[in-house]
Amino acid sequence: MEAEVFSVSQLNRYLKQRLDLDPVLSRITLRGEIGTFHRHPRSGHCYFTLKDEQASVKCVMFRYAAQALSFQPMEGMAVVVKGSVQLYEKEGALQVYVQEMQPAGLGALYLAFEQLKRKLQSAGLFDPAIKKPLPRFPQTIGVVTSPSGAALQDIIQILSRRYPLVELRVYGALVQGEKAPASLRAAVAKAAKDPLDLLIIARGGGSAEDLFCFNDEQLAYEIYRCPIPVISAVGHEVDYTICDFVADLRAPTPSAAAELAVPEAGQILSALADTRHRLTRSMNRKLEQILQRLLPLQTRLTRQHPGRMLEQSAQRLDEASSRLERAVQGKINQKSQEFLALTGRLEALSPLAVLNRGYTLTQLEGKAVTSLAQVQLGDQITTAVKDGAFTSIVGEIDYGTEKSDAGRKSASSGNPGQSTGTGAAGAE
To answer: Residue 13: which of 82, 73, 79, 89 has the closest Cα?
Structure first.
């Protein structure tokens, strides 16, 4: 029976499938020393070899995983990697696809710390110019720490003693282990959204490995972006972490952070009393100076008092008022005399004055009768006297000597009982 013939691509595909199904190779942890190391300048993928004294294996760490590194891998560095073993079909090459990488040993941790420190410093995260000042009298303080740790109890005790008015909010987080960086980042992000005056990141003492979670690059950027002033209090006085450098203020211990965060109530009261005393003395001196300046002003005011000026003005006003009154009265008297004179003239010319002297006014149809030519026999005329008027019918018209006969003839031919007048139109 003839053996089955495989192509190279079929072989590589078969080997890849077998490797993918292996439970050990799908999630493997390797320890070794980095041989050659290359980071692609455009893609950001990392290509390197991992070796020990007897063998080496190719490794690849894609950009998404490489961005989470807290240190810069270097040739000769001992590391521990986690990932999967797969076959690169195109070349038939066995590769470890690395998902995580950590330095191996204390020396490597220190190297990773120094590398990250230099990187963040170059990025400007440690610039003193961007450090936010701490509030003098904070009302609300947040603490990112383990809820069960001794660091929190130390902070609570000191805050209660020094400044009991402050409100404390605890944002629980893991402070040790692989999950600690993510937990710390989440706690800081949550605190940054709350109305806090100050934020403390705290942890008690421990080994360098225990404190290494505070050297996380993403945690550093979370603190950098936090709008609230941050105090870092991680470990003991001799311990330094990346959080200490990126925070607005480093405290050697959690207890020291609490003392730096708030003033002491007793000192505030003493300062207030001293300020009150100095203010009282200053005000007394100021009042004395003002009084000294007021004395000459008071003398001048006495001489040039507005009341006196008002009195003088009132007197002048009275005088002016009297003059005005006399002038007005004089004018009134003058106009009264003129009015009386005009009234006398008007009365002299008034028809009523004529009537008062015994004369009458005769009218025909509302018009004054001034000539015999205006009337005819039988006309109804109105005669006005001083106390009224009466109506008459013309019965005789006397035109004087030349027309007396004609007038008498006219009268004799009129109705019986009609009266006659002499030298004027007779009227009934």
So the answer is: 89
